Amino acid sequence: MSQSQLVDRILVNKPEADKAVLNKAYIFGTKMHGRQLRASGDPYFSHPIEVAGILSDLKLDTTSVVCALLHDTIEDTNATIEDIEKNFGKEVAKLVDGVTKLTLLEGKPGSTKQAENFRKLLLASASDIRILLIKLADRLHNMRTLHFIKDQKKRKRISLETLEIYAPLAGRIGMQELKEELEDLSFTFIEPKIREILIERLRSSKKKKSKIVQFTKKELEKVLNKNKIKSSVFGREKKPYSIWKKLEVQHKSLEQLSDIFGFRVCVDSISECYQVLGILHGEWQAIPGKFKDYISTPKKNGYQSLHTTLIGPQNQRVEVQIRTEKMNELAERGLAAHWIYKDNDDVEHDYLSSIEWINDLVDILNRDGATEEFLENTKLELFLDQIYAFTPKGTLVALPRNATALDFAYAVHTELGNFCGSVKINGIDKPRRTVLQNGDEVEILKSKIPVALESLQEFVKTGKAKSAIIRSIKEKKSHNQRLLGKAIIKSVFSSHRKKPTRDILERSFGALQVNSLKSLYELVGEGSSSGSQVYDLVFPNNKRKKRKKNYVDKNLSIPVQGLLSDMPAQFAKNSFIVPGDKIVGIALPEKGITIFSVDSQELTNFEKSPESWIKLEWKKEIDFTFTSRIKITIINEVGVLNSITSTIADYGGNITNLILNEKDNDFYNLIIDINVNDNHHINDIVKSLDGLPVVEAVIRFIG
Fold first, then answer.
1. What range defines the domain where residue 486 resides?
2. What is the per-residue pLDDT across 444-463, written as a single tens digit (0 to 9) for each?
3. 499 lies in a domain?
4. Which one of 44, 159, 499, 589 is at 20 to 30 Å from 465 when CA atoms are compared?
5. Is the dihedral of CA 450, 454, 458, 463 positive or negative?
6. Domains in the chain: how many in total?
């Protein structure tokens, strides 16, 4: 397309466009791209020209079209953002920068690259929605010319990305025609044989049904004319990909599908939309459950229409959409149609940039650590249909179908989801995993502390909720690891009469490749390093007191007297017995000798076989420590955990595991595993903990 042809095309669609700027951008792009060629052999600049043409047909503003002409100059030429800003202004430069691909990620196929590009796109789109429109036009032309790429795997990868990301994005902003073309182009490369067979079968089916379609259209027009309704009636065949998806979801044959053709009635006003609906329902039987009113309750993307399904002429199932002409323009062109209804380029950018669903996705972006998780969660947001629920104050909340009350809480606010203690639906107490229905009134009752969400993860449907829960679980795990790591370090240092101050611990940062105390504590808590290693790094010249080895190796001799030499022996599972506890052995031929605490409830299983009981005692000299387990109920106050871990360290206990469990708003339960010498040692620790004012109760597990 020549310079004059493009400019003339733009001026036809947008007479107020700045001709001088368009010519300047064309010349600049031509100069920068020079002799670069596309895979088709065409000059590379033919691509920006076609993208500009697509945006022109969408009647976008001059700035968007100029950006289309320049969108690849930063990545593929010597031009800089400064050059763009100098020649075309800050606004164009901002758009070009937003659309420019991440060069460093190019050539690295896979979900990580895909997710990172998508993250950038959404962040940029949140500031100016035109970036998304330009990117979609860019992707559309690339898909139209994808057949020139020889690498079949690359074609399929690009097509999958288009189908999973860009087509749903186009749908989300209401650009139905663009969405359908992207889907069908992707379908061409992903399942070429299936598409070919489907088109051939549609061709033969179309011949049979064309008469029915024409007859139905005439009957609709006849009924509306009789009722003096000025309208336009359209019948349209659905795209191959759309039909294929219906076949997959509904598990029907092509012959069984009744909605290959859809009908649309366009009128002048909203009142006429409802009038037409009444007329059609009066003339033909409406199918229950197949009516949707998107006029009174529009979709998030602004889509408005009435949908109904009838048993129409000749007893054929007929899908009908009823809308105004403006609604139809918005349905076909989506967000791009906002420029059609403006007298100049001054579109309501504040409105366009604050589209709720983009902000929701950006919220996921800011919360998700893993790019793959981000991509999956955003896919969820893009694909799911909607229902509408209300807050007690009447605020409308749009959610995907099958969303739960917990999804609702996260949709209102992330913090409300994290603190969602209980739920009332239509005034009745319900579980948080309850699936919501259209029109439900949902009241979220907040807890004073974050709630345990692990068990509810599988029940939420929105990407926002899934992302927040994953992050919450990760943060909780990291928090517990930091607590454990801090306790371990303090225990080791206390045994050598040293205090692990910040200045001292910072000496280990370089060797352990961490840059904060939090990172250090987490490293030790997760087991990647040890408290002893940290001590040796900060006091390299001090000889560390040799600790007793903990009894964890089953190959070590059991320090117990009375065992039978010809039978293997082991401690009962989860017994947490330590030297000094009263013990007894149960000898079974097939299992050997199992050592229990005399207080163990399991011993009741052997009351009828007293011959299997063996009297046992601990040896006097034991060179090992043993793991003891305690459960503490503590008051929910600041600094409580530090008091607990400090007390254990002061008594020479070595914390090896710490589990933080929620109890209620006022108390927490802590389960702590401690390496101790004997029962006197653990009893002293228990007594000292029980004496703390912040401790409600301490229980030691034995058997």
1. 472-547
2. 998 877 777 777 778 888 88
3. yes
4. 159
5. positive
6. 5
